[in-house]
Design a protein that fits this description.
This protein is mainly α and 518 residues long. The chain has helices at 14-33, 41-48, 52-55, 57-69, 73-80, 82-102, 106-120, 123-134, 140-168, 173-176, 178-193, 207-230, 236-256, 272-302, 307-314, 316-330, 337-355, 364-379, 382-390, 398-441, 443-455, 460-493, 495-500, 508-514. The model is unreliable at 1-5 and 506-518 (pLDDT under 50).
Length: 518
C-alpha cells in the first residue's frame, strides 16, 4: 500500500486555479460527449448508410458503457490511486475520441463509443473528490459551484457546437475536438496533483458481480435497441435478450446482497430517501434524455432544420439553468428539496404540454419558448434531488451512493432514448395509416391537389410521392406530440414517490454534500 495517509492540505495560489480548471475540463468533456452527438445523428446515420433509429446507438452505447464503468471507480481508485486513474481515464478518453472520428463504419463507431464510455466512467466522481481535497471545508461550496457550472454548460454547448460542426465542418470533428481538451486537462491535472496521490494497492474485486452486471445491462440495452428493428417480442432474439436480462438481474441481485464487498452496494435501497430519490431521479432523467434526443431528430428529419438550428433550439436550457442554480444552492437548507423538485417536475410537465401542441406550422419562436422554460425547470432539478438521495447517509456510504445513483440514472437515460424513438416511430406509423384512410375515404377533397400538381408538370407517381411526404411529416409531428404529452403526465406522476420521501430541511450539511455529488 502506498500514498499519503493523512488528509492533504488545500491547494494555494495558481495551483488552485490550474487544478480546478484541469479536472473541470475533464468533466466538461465527458458531459459534452453525452449530448454533442444528438443533433449529429442524422448526418452520422446518412454517412454510415444506416437508419436514424440505428444511429441512436451512437448515443446509447456511450451511456450504457459509462453506466457500467461508474461502479468500478472506487475499486480502480483503491487499486491505482485517484490521480493516476483520473489522468489515465482522461488520456484513454482522448484516444477513443480519435478512434470515434476515424471510424469507417457504424459498428466501428459504436465500438469506439463503448470504449469512450468506459473511460469516461471514473471522471465525474473523481473530479469531485480531487476538487474537494483542493479547497478548505469553508470553500468546498465554491469548488462544487465551479464544478457544477461545467455540468450545466456542457449540455447547453453540446447540441449547439455539434450542430455547428456538423453543418460547417463534418461530424467526425465533434470527437476530434476532445483531443486538445483532453491533453490539456491531463497535463494540468498531472502537474498539480501528481504529488497528492491517494493511498492505493491490491484491492479485491467482485468479479462475479462485475460479469453479472455487464451481462444483464448489456442484454437489456440490446433488447431495447434491437426491438425497434426486430418487431420486439415477435423476435426470438428479443425474447432471448429479455430472458438473459431478467435472469442476469436476479442473479446479480442475489449475489450482491450476499457479498461483504459487493461491486454495487444494493443495501442502499433500504434507505427510504435514497430509494425514492433514486427512482424519481432515474425515471425523470430517462424522460429528460429521451426527449432531448427526440426533439432535434424531429426538427431535422421533418421540419427542415439544419443541425446547428436544431442545436440552437436546445441552447436556452443551459443558459437559464446556470442563472438560477446559484439561488437554488443557497436556499437548499431553508426550502424543502421536495418543494424545489416539485417546481421542476411541474415546469417540465408544462414544457411538454406546450410541445404536445406543436404542428407542422410551428415557427421557431413557438418551438424555442418551451426550451426557455425548460432551462428554468432544470435549475430546480439536479441539486434538490441529490439532496434527497444523500440525506441521512453517513459520510462513509456517500461514494457508494453516488456511484449507484449515477449508474441507475445513466441506464435510465440510455433506455429512455431507445424507448422514445421506438414509441415515436410506432405512433407515426399509426397516424400515417389513419391519415391515408381519411384521404381514401374522401377522394373528392384530394383530387384537386393531384390535379394542381400534375398541372405544374409533375408526373402521377411524383405527385403521389409529394403527397405521401406531406402525410409522413404530419404523422411524425402528431407522433412526437403524443410522446411529449405522455412524458408530461409521467413527470406529474413522479410527484408521488417524491413526496413519499422524508423532509431534509433540517439536514443542511447533507444537502450541501449532495449538491456537489452529481
Amino acid at each position: 500500500m502506498s500514498g499519503p495517509a493523512a488528509p492533504l492540505p488545500p491547494l494555494r495560489g495558481a495551483h488552485t486555479l490550474i487544478g480546478t480548471l484541469g479536472v473541470s475540463l475533464a468533466t466538461f468533456m465527458t458531459v459534452l460527449d453525452s449530448s454533442i452527438a444528438n443533433v449529429s445523428l442524422p448526418a452520422i446515420a446518412g454517412d454510415m448508410g444506416v437508419s436514424p433509429s440505428q444511429g441512436t446507438w451512437v448515443v446509447t452505447s456511450f451511456a450504457v458503457a459509462n453506466a457500467i464503468s461508474v461502479p468500478l471507480t472506487g475499486w480502480l481508485a483503491r487499486r491505482l490511486g485517484q490521480v493516476r486513474l483520473m489522468v489515465g481515464s482522461v488520456l484513454a478518453f482522448t484516444l477513443f475520441s480519435w478512434l470515434c472520428g476515424v471510424a469507417p463504419s457504424i459498428d466501428t463507431l459504436i465500438a469506439a463509443r463503448i470504449l469512450q464510455g468506459l473511460a469516461a466512467g471514473p471522471l465525474i466522481p473523481l473530479s469531485q473528490v480531487l476538487l474537494l481535497s483542493s479547497y478548505t471545508p469553508a470553500r468546498a461550496g465554491t469548488a462544487m459551484a465551479a464544478w457544477g457550472m461545467t455540468v450545466l454548460v456542457a449540455p447547453m454547448v453540446g447540441p449547439l457546437l455539434g450542430g455547428w460542426i456538423t453543418d460547417n465542418v463534418s461530424w467526425p470533428w465533434i470527437f476530434y475536438i476532445n483531443i486538445p481538451v483532453g491533453l490539456l486537462s491531463a497535463a494540468m491535472t498531472w502537474m498539480v496533483y501528481r504529488r497528492r496521490e491517494s493511498a492505493h494497492g491490491p484491492s479485491p474485486l467482485d468479479y462475479t458481480g462485475l460479469v453479472l452486471l455487464v451481462i444483464w445491462v448489456g442484454a437489456l440495452q440490446l433488447m431495447v435497441d434491437q426491438g425497434k428493428e426486430l418487431d420486439w417480442f415477435e423476435s426470438t432474439e428479443i425474447v432471448m435478450m429479455a430472458v438473459i436480462a431478467t435472469v442476469g438481474f436476479l442473479f446479480f441481485l442475489a449475489w450482491e446482497l450476499t457479498q461483504t464487498s459487493p461491486i454495487v452496494d444494493l443495501r442502499l435501497f433500504g434507505q427510504r430517501n435514497f430509494a425514492l430519490g433514486t427512482v424519481s431521479f432515474a425515471v425523470s432523467y430517462g424522460l429528460f434524455f429521451g426527449n432531448v434526443v427526440l426533439l432535434p431528430l424531429w426538427l431535422q428529419q421533418h421540419m427542415g432544420y439544419t443541425a446547428i438550428w436544431a442545436g440552437a433550439v436546445l441552447a436556452p436550457v443551459g443558459v437559464f439553468a446556470i442563472m438560477l442554480s446559484p439561488w437554488v444552492g443557497r436556499n437548499m437548507a431553508r426550502i424543502d428539496p421536495r418543494l424545489l423538485t416539485t417546481v421542476s417536475f411541474f415546469g417540465y410537465a408544462i414544457v411538454l404540454w406546450l410541445r404536445s401542441n406543436f404542428t407542422t406550422d410551428s415557427d421557431l419562436f413557438a418551438i424555442l419558448m418551451p426550451t426557455v422554460l425548460q432551462g428554468m425547470a432544470t435549475a430546480f432539478y439536479f441539486i434538490p434531488l441529490q439532496a434527497i438521495i444523500y440525506s441521512g447517509l453517513p459520510p462513509a456510504r456517500l461514494p457508494a451512493a453516488g456511484g449507484l445513483s449515477t449508474f441507475v440514472r445513466f441506464v435510465a437515460g440510455a433506455v429512455g432514448t431507445s424507448v422514445f424513438t421506438t414509441l415515436w416511430e410506432r405512433r407515426a406509423a399509426m397516424h400515417h395509416a389513419h391519415l391515408t384512410e381519411q384521404m381514401s375515404a374522401q377522394p373528392a377533397n384530394v383530387q384537386p391537389v393531384f390535379e394542381t400538381l400534375q398541372g405544374a408538370g409533375f408526373l402521377p407517381d411524383q405527385s403521389l410521392g409529394m403527397v405521401n411526404r406531406v402525410i409522413e411529416q404530419q404523422a411524425f409531428t402528431m407522433a412526437v406530440a403524443d410522446v411529449f404529452y405522455l412524458s408530461g403526465w409521467l413527470y406529474l406522476l413522479l410527484l408521488l414517490p417524491l413526496w413519499c420521501s422524508a423532509s431534509t430541511t433540517r439536514r443542511p450539511a447533507a444537502a450541501g454534500r449532495a449538491s456537489g455529488s452529481h
